[in-house]
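Lab notes, practical 5.
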Amino acid sequence: MQKFSKKFFSFVFVWMVATIQPFCYGFANEQELAKADRFFNQKKYTESLKIYEQVFQTSGKASPSMLLKMAFIYEGLGNYTQTLFCLSLHYEYTPSNTTLLRMEKIAQDRGLQGYEHSDFDYILAIFHRYYVYFNILLIVIFGSLFGLFIYRLRKRETLPVRQGIAFVLALTGIFILLNFSEDPPKAIIKNDKVFLMSAPSAASEMIDRLDKGHRVELLSKKDIWFKIKIGDKVAYIRESNLIKI
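Output from the prediction step:
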């Protein structure tokens, strides 16, 4: 009985620690963010940036407003690579034409590639933002049409052409969502004089050399190398030279 009691209380203790720790950690982060926001409002930008960076590094998370504040500070410090990183991440969370145009302007001023966009890119970003809801809507439509199809089949009734077309379109939409809706992950080059290689090897042919700030699409990974695409070029770059968005 005594052994059981010890095991029981040990289990309760571990459960309490596991439950309370994330709450305390989140509360501590909220306190730190409130402090950083006060510094920001007082225009003590370097002090606030230190806290924002610490919270981001420890939690791996950042709110859209925090990212905008970090981008503002980085831009003031002349660190356009981190500015573009924060804006890119902000756009992933909350797509907006304002953020797109801001990134494009910074990139154009510094001759950076990878930030070109079109109206279709914006629509695609909105789609990715609400991907789950689009999926649910299509599944509900498909389920309703399928149920109606089974009902008419049992009644030996002919399925109207319109409903048949809607059924096929819903099925096609689900297929496209599941197979072709993924947007390639992106990264920003964080170092100067980075070599783009023709193969995942330092001994391979050098295709180009880029400085920091350019944004690339990540196609695949092999060991310490990423296969990337920038413009019409496909090349390999070391992982240590990239900040993944």
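Observations recorded by the TA: The helical segments are 2-41, 45-59, 64-76, 80-93, 97-109, 119-129, 131-154, 161-180. Strands lie at 186-189, 194-197, 206-210, 215-222, 225-230, 233-238, 242-244.
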